[in-house]
Amino acid sequence: MRDQPKTIKSWVMYDWANSAFATTIMAAVMPIYYIDAIGGTDAGWGFTQSAAGLVVALLSPLLGAIADHSNNKISFLRAFTLIGALASLLLAFPGKGDVLLASLIVIVGMIGFGAGNTFYDALLNDITSPGLREKVSARGFSMGYMGGGILLALNVVVIQKPEWFGLQDSTGGSQVSFLSVGLWWLIFSVPLLRLKQEKTAAQTSAKVGEQIRVGLSRLRETFSRIRQYPELWKFMVAYWFFFDGVNTVIVMATSYGKSIGIETGPLITALLITQFIGFPATYIFGNLAVKFGPRRMLVASQALYLVIVVLGYFMQNATHFYILAALVGLVQGGSQATARSIYSKLLPEGRAAEFNGFLTFTSRFFSFGGPLVFALVRIFTDSSRTALLAIAFFFLMGMVLLSFVNLAKGEREALQAS
């Protein structure tokens, strides 16, 4: 099914589908609803995110290894899409005081989202040849920004003007927004989830226990053999720093904005700005990666993140926050799409899901570093601005380490191992 326009379009639309979960539930509506309507706390929300991330990190390498052995990534993607979408629908039901229930449902939803993305990313190798991956990967992220942004914009209207839709208050609007995420995710995933992957007779007849045994065996091989691919290994280490920096900017942006006096409304508006600028910017970024080289563009994106962090140190008001949100939109999706396409080219044939699972595990395992640095600097300096400035270290390290990666050599290593 490689390089077929219909297949590529179906793959791209999945990003449109599941990004609704990232924007409405993970970033904008649910964090506020969790505190204001359910009665949770910032700490409780943080523990919920940590628990979900830990489970996804532990599951992803094993699930990836099993999916590679069975050559059945789409079946796993179907399962986790259903889990995530159903969890989104169920979030409409917890009420005041149902903090534990809400946390558990969010964790289940994030498992569906995070584990599903492991198989979605791995499918990039199956649907495209190496020369097209920058553009296709960027198209996916670009459509994700648009899809997630459109639904979030609609949900903001429902929440702020509930009477227009026959609802009593904004709480009802938030509940409707959670239902919309589940339905949106399911409906727009259908084109990709209807595809079928070819399996050998041995793979088809293998029992679940056998799949798990083989998956664990392949996982052990991954840990022991990954350093046999020096360029892949160097890129992964650079990616850990880059991912940690980007993740910290994403998860700390709202709390940082609040700490310097920006209200909730402008914070959500800033997220919408990032989404809608990210749509065309990510697509353009992918084309530039083809023209100038993916590594060069990835380094450029980290340089812009450095600028963003420095400007954030001096930020004073909502207008400044909007400007920074626009700058983030220019590079956030494009840099992640380019990193995904680079990584896909460095993987040995037949182990894409396994190695994507390994990357998910390691990047999430190390992702505590950025928020931890932010928190420690905040405590010792009593300054959120200085804490934000400290995150520049992660982008500097990512740029330096990336300069040592020889992508052409890494692609040859992957081909020789296949």
Provide key terms for this protein.
mainly alpha; 418 residues; single chain; Growth Hormone, Chain: A
Domain tally: 1
* CATH superfamily grouping: MFS general substrate transporter like domains
Task: Give the quaternary arrangement of the chains.
Answer: single chain
Percentage of residues in strands: under 5%
- CATH C-level category: Mainly Alpha
Q: Shape from CA axes?
A: globular
Poorly predicted regions = none
Percent range for helical residues?
over 70%
SSE ordering = HHHHHHHHHHHHHHHHH
How many DSSP H or I helices? 17
Q: Judging by the overall fold, what is the CATH architecture?
A: Up-down Bundle
Describe the sheet with the most strands.
none
Determine the N-to-C terminus distance.
Answer: 19 Å
Mean pLDDT: 87
CATH topology descriptor: Growth Hormone, Chain: A
Pfam families: ATG22
Transmembrane segments: 12-35, 47-67, 74-93, 99-120, 141-160, 172-193, 232-253, 265-285, 297-315, 355-380, 386-408
Organism: Cohnella yongneupensis
Membrane topology: Multi-pass membrane protein
